[in-house]
Design brief:
alpha/beta; Rossmann fold; 7 strands; 32% helix; S-adenosylmethionine-dependent methyltransferase activity
């Protein structure tokens, strides 16, 4: 039997990515203005929110994971890191290692991000930062955030979540974004490294709502065909 050349995933994974990875995924090399309100949706155990606060951003994150205790998150996170490393080791030739360098360095980065996240999650500084919530129902008032990010959730799980879910999720991301603010989603792929099959319909829906919506070039050459992220700019109030 031929071995699969695709990443196999059952259920929704919990990941621990760094601030620097977000900069590359969403092409944020120009920086985010200090004091901006930022939301990381499906943030998992990423250290992005902790690091964003340290940089002067009013950052928050939402994920069902945050209903768990820090101890449970740590156990789950470390198990997930080991599982991911084992899968990637079998697929070394599939990925572009220009940024991460190797499976071992990729794993070390995940561990470092998890530990930074846990330190922040356990601290008093994190009060009100992490909300146990899931798309398409977020517990925030409309127009709260200047920037809304969602990585490695929408589109990736195309086989598990239907078109109606994706449409509702994108509408919800726009709802919590302020007029004139931005929503960014990465990657645009499913686990077969193919672009989400109904992307054009979603783009048409977003544009019909008055938003600017387009593919923009990302800066994280790792997954095959992952050159782009989805950029959405919410219409200003008239």
């Amino acid at each position: 039997m031929q071995e699969s050349r695709f990443y196999e995933q059952i259920g929704v994974a919990m990941t621990s990515r760094s601030y620097e990875e977000y900069v590359r995924m969403f092409s944020l090399d120009g920086g985010l203005a200090a004091g901006s309100r930022v939301l990381d949706v499906a943030g998992g155990a990423a250290s992005f929110t902790a690091d964003a606060q340290r940089r002067g951003l009013r950052a928050e994150a939402a994920d069902p994971l945050y209903a768990m205790t820090p101890e449970a998150i740590e156990r789950h996170g470390r198990d997930e890191i080991e599982a991911v490393a084992a899968k990637m080791d079998k697929l070394r030739g599939v990925y572009n290692w220009e940024y991460y360098g190797s499976v071992e360095r990729h794993k070390a980065g995940r561990v470092a991000s998890l530990e930074q996240f846990l330190g922040h999650y356990r601290s008093g500084d994190a009060s009100g930062t992490y909300s146990a919530a899931a798309l398409p129902d977020l517990p925030y008032e409309a127009g709260r955030f200047d920037h809304v990010f969602c990585s490695h959730f929408l589109f990736l799980y195309e086989q598990q979540f239907d078109y109606a879910f994706h449409e509702a999720a994108l509408r919800e991301l726009l709802r919590v974004c302020k007029p004139g603010g931005e929503v960014r989603v990465y990657p645009l792929l499913n686990f077969r490294t193919e672009e989400y099959s109904r992307m054009e319909e979603l783009l048409a829906m977003l544009r019909a709502s008055g938003a600017e919506a387009e593919r923009r070039r990302a800066q994280l050459p790792f997954l095959p065909n992952s050159e782009f992220y989805l950029y959405i700019r919410k219409q200003n109030e008239k």
